[in-house]
Every structure is written in C-alpha cells, then in structure tokens.
Amino acid sequence: MKIGVPSEVKVQEYRVAMTPAGVRELTDHGHEVVIQAGAGAGSAISDADYVAQGAEILPDAASVFAAAEMIVKVKEPQPPEVAMLEARHTLFTYLHLAPDPELTQGLIDSGATCIAYETITDINGRLPLLAPMSEVAGRLATQAGAFMLGRPVGGSGVLLGGVPGVAAGNVLVIGGGIVGANAARMAVGLGADVTVLDRSIDRLRELDNIFAGTVQTEYATGLAIEARLAEADLVVGAVLVKGAKAPHVVSREQLKLMKSRSVLVDVSIDQGGCFETSHPTTHADPVYEVDGISHYCVANMPGAVPITSTRALTNATLPYAVRLADQGAAAALAADPGFLGGLSVHAGRLTDPAVAADQGRDFTPPAEAFAIPAAA
C-alpha cells in the first residue's frame, strides 16, 4: 500500500502524523510512504530524516493525496483537504465530527473510508489513540491556566502555588479521566489546592488512591459544581462522551458565581466544549472574556508542544496504521471490534451512532458498512 502524510494546515498546528521510525516500520512491511515536503519541520523532523528511512518527498498536498491510498493525519481535514479525498482513500486521523455537520457531510460526499483516532477502543474499553494527546492536553491545561491567571494577560493575579504566608490558588477539575487526572497532577505539582469532580464513584476512588490525599474528590452534582465554582481561581473542563458532543457543565448564568478574572480552560472544545460560553480559539489568540471570566479554548492544545506531541501520538497510532496497510481497512477493522469502533464514514454513509444522534442523521452500523455496496 502507498501511505501519504501531508503537512497539517490547521492554524498553528505543528504536529505531523508520522515520524521517521514510522516510515521505517511501514517500509519494512513492504509499503511505500510519501511525505509532503516540510511536513515534519514543526516537529524538528527534516525531509532528509524521512528519506533516510525510505520515504519519498512530494512537493505539495495535492501530490500526496493523488499518490496515496491511505492518508494519515493529525487533525481533522480542512476544506481544501476534504476536496482532495476520493472514494479510493482511507483517511486515518482525529475527526471530532459531532460538533461539525459541515465536515461530516464533506466526508460522506467524498466516499472515502474515514477512521477516527478518538473512537477506537482497546480490549479494556479504553481510548488508546486519544490517551496520549489527553495526557498532553491535561498537563498543558494547568500550565496555560496558571499563565493566564497573570494580571498582565487579564487574569486575577493569583499564583497557583502561593508562597509562605499566602494561600495557594484553588483549581477545580471537572472530569476525572485522563485529561482531568493529568491536569490535577500538574496543579498538585505547582502547589495548588485541587478538587476533581466526576460522576463515577469508581473513578473517584482510583483518583483518591493515585493522589494519596493530595487532591479532594467529589461527586459531580450540579450543586457541587456551583459550590466549587465560587472558590475556584482556575477551572479545567475535562468532560468526554466518546464520539459525542460534550455536555455543558457550566452555564453562562453560573459564571456569576465565579471570582472576577478567574480562568476557564475548556479541553473539551474539540467536541464542542463543556462550558456554555466556550467557542474555539487558536494559539495566536487563545483567550477571550465573558462576564469577567477568561476563557482559554484552544482547539489543538497539544500542537503547541509538537516535539513531545508528535512522538507521543505516533507511538500510539503506528501499530494501527501498520495493520491498515498490511490488511486493508475492511479486514483490519473486521478483525478487531475496538478498531471497528473508529469507523466514522464509509462509502458515502455515516457509521458513527454518536455523531448521527447529535446531528440528527441516519447511520449504518460499522459492522454492516463494508457489506453494503457503495452509495450511488
């Protein structure tokens, strides 16, 4: 199979979907890899690094899409990329379709087979291709939020760790999954007072054991959220419903409960955001204010640290990419129900039930998708 890796074109996205080690692995399996010139530059990977492991460098994205059968990316395809997709392509990347009906329709119209990193599960029901970026985003959330609390950038002027004689800042993490746990870890490391809210008692028990009493845990009722909002200097939104739009856990009305110039960081923004007042921002213009509360809602947070993020992501995605290349999409997905769960679109049909529910669309169950003739 011929695998193509284009440059990422989302604003200030510096990651790349494959490292030279990935090229080596695929070429050792007898596949060809084509890389867009300069695709790895933002992650400190040169074209020569790729060539040394057997890749061919092509001048632009159009050449990569034309040459390749499988396209491997990091972020969801932007409109010019969607226009280059064809029915013969397998697209393997993050998609985050639930809040984006236009992208969903574009992928359906392309006829391509589109597999989303974020809805693939392992044998334990975990999300192995979302996990590494959740770890990065969770850690960045606290780091970014701590900076945004600085008075020169519009924050309240609280130092999260405090100093002797001055109380530490208060961090509220809503959602105790991988993002939330990593945000809490960073906040504890800075010396903040940290509370994690979640709706799973089992997960709260796990976090209590992990942090050995250095964070408070509480069941995430609406009343508990309101009480904690009033105390918080920094709130990290880390809510995930696999494949679906994130629920709003903080309303605009509830912003009135918060201290002036406190900070919200919405890590759920790729899935629509978990604060009612959230909308996507970029690294160039990351923060806006609503009712005196700073909102940090960058939709590709891990892209800010591409040397770390690219390697963490490709460590996770490479085994799946090799299986797709070795077996083809139909066989690779059929052999692994968790992998099949990543199928979002195939042959003009939506196959993700969560996206279908959020967008009011019909869908074809993934297990049936490859048995049905392509849509006319």
List the helices and strands and how they pair.
Elements: E1 2-5, H1 20-28, E2 32-36, H2 47-51, E3 56-58, H3 61-67, E4 70-72, H4 79-82, E5 90-93, H5 101-110, E6 113-116, H6 131-148, E7 170-174, H7 178-190, E8 193-198, H8 201-211, E9 216-219, H9 222-229, E10 234-237, E11 263-266, E12 287-290, E13 293-296, H10 306-327, H11 329-334, H12 337-340, E14 343-346, E15 349-350, H13 353-359, H14 366-369
Parallel strand pairs: 1-2, 1-4, 2-3, 4-5, 5-6, 7-8, 7-10, 8-9, 10-11, 11-13
Antiparallel strand pairs: 6-14, 12-13, 14-15
Helix pairs in contact: 6-7
Give your account of this protein's structure.
The chain is of the alpha/beta class. The chain has 2 domains: 182 residues, Rossmann fold, CATH 3.40.50.720; 169 residues, Rossmann fold (3-Layer(aba) Sandwich). The chain is 34% helix and 16% strand. Strands 3-2-1-4-5-6-14-15 form an 8-stranded mixed β-sheet, sandwiched between helices. Strands 9-8-7-10-11-13-12 form a 7-stranded mixed β-sheet, sandwiched between helices. β1, α1 and β2 form a beta-alpha-beta unit. The longest helix is centred in the C-terminal third of the chain and has 22 residues. The two termini are 26 Å apart. The model has no long low-confidence stretch (mean pLDDT 96).
